[in-house]
Amino acid sequence: QVQLVESGGGSVQAGGSLRLSCAASGRTFSNYHMGWFRQAPGKEREFVAVISWSGGSTYYDDSVKGRFTLSRDNAKNTVYLEMNSLKPEDTAVYYCATTFMYGSRRQDDYRHWGQGTQVTVSS
User: Fold this and answer.
1) 3-state helix, strand, coil in the chain (%, to 5)
2) By the 8 A CB rule, do 74 and 55 touch?
3) Per-residue model confidence as pLDDT tens digits over 73-116
4) How far, in Å, CA of 78 to CA of 73, rounded?
5) Which listed residue, 44, 70, 75, 85, has the most CB atoms within 10 A of its CB?
């Protein structure tokens, strides 16, 4: 019922910024909490952040807290991940996903997934 497409990835030097977007199709977008995950080469996919359906609450992994900001515009069916003070260890493919379980860090609790967008941070 919901299809997600990530965009905004690219290459940036350490300390730089990027803003990722996740555009959704379907009329039930606002019913879901929206999360971001990332997967670096040779590593497991890991939780990054989640935002509540209304945008009123956010929860971040400690590795990005204070550097990344998650927001959403339900009128545009879009969620954004603003990434500042980027580090080489942030290099990964970033995925957005839907969930009914706000605060979950488990992949299995997320229903719809995008195809991912590559973020590369050089030192």
Assistant:
1) 10, 50, 40
2) yes
3) 988 999 999 999 999 999 999 999 999 999 999 999 999 999 99
4) 5
5) 70
